[in-house]
């Protein structure tokens, strides 16, 4: 068998008579001792990156030991099995009602929401609700329903492109530009028409971490309604920001305080501070979620509404979210997010003060910021080279092109999460300075082979 088709087992761990190599792509013919199987998997993933030096991801990689205990006690719970795990279901309800309150729903007891496997599923459900409501209204008015569109920034996360692709909705991208760096309501009337099912506003644009001004978008839609009669709702994709703004920018009106905001999603596993596998979506009032999207499942001899793309999924993450809500409370969440923000602003200030760079934003929305090379600074190297050099020190700091109409601009981004403290930030800054000094001393251009974005939002 050729080497590329086998996984070698360290002979120290293989027991007498056991194979010392297993086929990579075929199920083994016989059994293996659990210790050996454990070793193979354990050793293989040991080569995965070090999560604390991964400054590319938004997803939580650390919880405390009580969370770990709760996790091991509950990883067998199936969220869909509400009959068997009624108390997990009750806790799920509590969590989204807590979120409805944090997001200033007029009456959190009359909202509706659900947990999901992540924001992607939550966005799909919110988008489907927009589409279905629009279809109902159009049918009631005797109008065609075959050409729905959704209006959003060109800097949306890929889930919105997926939504449009999977559910036959035409995406209408409003391009960002130097003057309009986010969707800000500018020129919106040119994109919205009677076939628009909604506008997506992003609280914490993935590319940069900047908030889109949801209130200004809502005001632009108010003007459109006055001029044309079209009443277009907003969905806020708050994958990261909806777990930050309630604690760090509580005066910012981006949420259900704005009547036009019908629904909001967030990722429990980003700034919700839970391990991967959890999202949330909440509607402002129950009537904004069309009845015909809800299935009834049996529950304690009665029925409970179910709204999801998946059937079975882990319930443990929901319990972990509730644990964090109880454990941290508002002041704890504020303290955690504030310390991430302090680190982000310190890093941004320091990088912005370096000769070669210009900040795109400064980490004062979510604790995420991006920078670019000062235009005209050098032809010898670019941010992909800097990204490569930082990799040598174990840091993952992605560089990538901005979306339309700024695709000529390359930026580099740092996501500060719980766990990147000031000490680690100082190490990172030292490494960024050393890498930049090295690149600045080049007497000619870096070879360009391989200097391409390998990063997905
Ligand atoms: C991360 C992210 C998503 C996707 O969320 P998952 O929880 O990873 O599925 C969607 N929108 C935005 C703005 C994001 O940052």
What does this structure look like?
The protein has 457 residues and is of the alpha/beta class. It folds into three domains: 3-48, no CATH class; 66-324, Type I PLP-dependent aspartate aminotransferase-like (Major domain) (Aspartate Aminotransferase, domain 2, 3-Layer(aba) Sandwich); 337-440, Aspartate Aminotransferase, domain 1, CATH 3.90.1150. The chain is 34% helix and 16% strand. The chain contains ten helices and 15 strands. It has helices at residues 34-45, 65-74, 86-102, 119-140, 158-166, 214-228, 245-248, 316-352, 383-391, 422-440; strands spanning 6-8, 21-23, 112-116, 149-153, 170-174, 196-202, 234-237, 261-267, 279-283, 295-299, 302-306, 357-359, 368-373, 399-401, 410-415. A seven-stranded mixed beta sheet has the order 3-9-8-7-6-4-5, sandwiched between helices. Strand 6 (196-202), helix 6 (214-228) and strand 7 form a beta-alpha-beta unit. It is globular. The two termini are 38 Å apart. The mean pLDDT is 93. One of its GO terms (molecular function) is glutamate decarboxylase activity. Belongs to the group II decarboxylase family. It is an enzyme of class 4 (lyase). Keywords: Decarboxylase, Lyase, Pyridoxal phosphate. This is Glutamate decarboxylase.
């Amino acid at each position: 068998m050729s080497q590329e088709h086998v996984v070698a087992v360290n002979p120290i761990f293989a027991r007498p008579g056991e194979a010392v190599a297993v086929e990579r792509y075929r199920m083994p013919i016989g059994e293996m001792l659990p210790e050996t199987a454990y070793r193979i998997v354990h050793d293989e993933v040991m080569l995965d990156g070090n999560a604390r030096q991964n400054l590319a991801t938004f997803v939580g990689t650390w919880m405390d030991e009580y969370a770990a205990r709760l996790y091991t006690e509950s990883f067998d719970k199936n969220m869909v099995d509400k009959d068997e795990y009624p108390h997990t279901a009750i806790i799920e309800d509590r969590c989204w009602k807590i979120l409805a309150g944090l997001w200033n729903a007029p009456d959190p007891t009359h909202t509706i929401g659900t947990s999901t496997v992540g924001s992607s599923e939550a966005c799909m459900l919110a988008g489907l609700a927009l589409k279905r409501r629009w279809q109902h209204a159009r049918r009631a008015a005797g109008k065609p329903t075959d050409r729905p569109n959704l209006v959003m920034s060109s800097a949306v996360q890929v889930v919105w492109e997926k939504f449009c692709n999977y559910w036959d909705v035409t995406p209408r991208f409003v391009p960002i530009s130097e003057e309009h760096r986010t969707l800000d309501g500018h020129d919106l009337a040119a994109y919205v028409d009677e076939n628009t099912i909604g506008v997506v506003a992003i609280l914490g644009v993935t590319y940069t971490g900047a908030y889109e001004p949801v209130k200004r978008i809502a005001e632009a839609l108010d003007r459109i309604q006055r001029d044309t009669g079209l009443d277009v709702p907003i969905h806020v994709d708050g994958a990261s920001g909806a777990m930050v703004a309630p604690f760090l920018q509580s005066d910012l009106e981006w949420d259900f305080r704005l009547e036009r905001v019908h629904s909001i999603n967030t990722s429990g596993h980003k700034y919700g501070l839970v391990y991967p596998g959890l999202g949330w979506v909440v509607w402002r009032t129950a009537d904004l979620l069309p009845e015909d999207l809800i299935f009834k499942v049996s529950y304690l001899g009665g029925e409970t509404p179910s709204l999801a793309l998946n059937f079975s999924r882990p319930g443990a993450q929901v319990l972990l979210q509730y644990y964090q809500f109880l454990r941290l409370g508002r002041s704890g969440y504020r303290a955690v997010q504030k310390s991430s923000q302090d680190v982000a602003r310190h890093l941004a200030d320091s990088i912005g003060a370096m000769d070669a760079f210009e900040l795109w934003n400064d980490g004062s929305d979510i604790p995420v910021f991006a920078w670019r090379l000062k235009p005209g600074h050098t032809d010898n190297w670019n941010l992909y080279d800097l990204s490569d050099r930082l990799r040598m020190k174990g840091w993952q700091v992605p560089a990538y092109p901005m979306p339309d109409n700024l695709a000529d601009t390359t930026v580099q981004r740092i996501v500060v999460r719980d766990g990147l403290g000031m000490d680690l930030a100082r190490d990172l800054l030292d490494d960024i300075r050393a890498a930049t000094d090295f690149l600045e001393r080049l007497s000619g251009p870096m070879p360009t082979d391989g200097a391409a974005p390998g990063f997905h939002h």
